[in-house]
Amino acid sequence: MITIDGRQVPLRGEATVLEVARREGIWIPTLCHHPGLAPYGACRLCLVEVKDGGKPGLAASCVLPATCGLVVETASPRVNQTRRILIQLLLAVVPDAPAIRELALQLGVSDSIFKAGSKTKSRCVLCGLCVRVCGEVGANAIGFAFRGPRRKVTPPFEKDAEKCLGCQACANICPTGEVKFTEQAGQIAGEPWQSRVDYAQCTSCGAPFAPAPFLAKLRERVGLEETGDLCPACRRRKLFEIVGA
């Protein structure tokens, strides 16, 4: 058993306190956490206060092991104060990011007491989601570089992201809108790391339909069926012909 906010709840195979809390419907804010990725513990918004059964004090619930006898509070005065300070710091960096604004509203924070410390237009909060998902899909086109205030996400040696697959997983998971992809003359362009990826052309109608490196990675990792080089419209037509035959 584990005790969360004075309520004893059973352990059912969950690895972390955050997992147990979510199973029980207990809200804990997160920014750098994603259920499809390994816990990271970077944003610290998921802090809980350990009262007994472990090292006393604040701990990130996404990496805090759920062990029998552990007693934690998810909304103690200390936890709430720390979360509000953290979200104010994030608001100072990316005041217009919808995800940050929503978290601030949920935490009862309307504005930041901190002044923006950077004059750059970057909306990156160094949550690491893009770096981690890029590694999971097998591209490893981007990573962290430098330390302290210079820390940033960048391709190797700060050059164009040559290993980018064009899968857009980084853009889909980015909570601030810093990562964006656009279509340009038969290519898909990713910002801010200057990736340029060619589209594969349908072998039937010739229309561009998917990033070529991403299709190649799919063939390598999971294999593609016979219709893998066809656009969606031609694929449906081909499958209809096969079924109709």
**Count, helices:** 7
From the spread of the alpha carbons, the general shape counts as globular
Spatial order of strands in the largest sheet: 2-1-5-3-4
Main β-sheet, in a few words? 5 strands, mixed
Broad structural category: alpha+beta
Total DSSP E strands: 11
Describe the overall structure:
The protein has 245 residues and is an alpha+beta fold. The protein has two domains: 1-117, Ubiquitin-like (UB roll), CATH 3.10.20.740; 129-244, no CATH class. Helix content is 28%, strand content 19%. The chain has helices spanning 17-23, 77-93, 98-106, 129-136, 169-173, 212-221, 232-244, and strands at 2-4, 7-9, 47-52, 57-60, 71-73, 143-145, 152-154, 180-184, 187-191, 195-201, 208-211. A five-stranded mixed sheet has the order 2-1-5-3-4, covered by helices on one side. The model has no long low-confidence stretch (mean pLDDT 90).
Write a compact overview of the structure shown.
This protein is an alpha+beta fold and about 240 residues long.
Secondary structure layout plus pairing:
Layout (H helix, E strand, L loop, with lengths): L1 E3 L2 E3 L7 H7 L23 E6 L4 E4 L10 E3 L3 H17 L4 H9 L22 H8 L6 E3 L6 E3 L14 H5 L6 E5 L2 E5 L3 E7 L6 E4 H10 L10 H13 L1
Parallel strand pairs: 1-5
Antiparallel strand pairs: 1-2, 3-4, 3-5, 6-7, 8-9, 9-10, 10-11
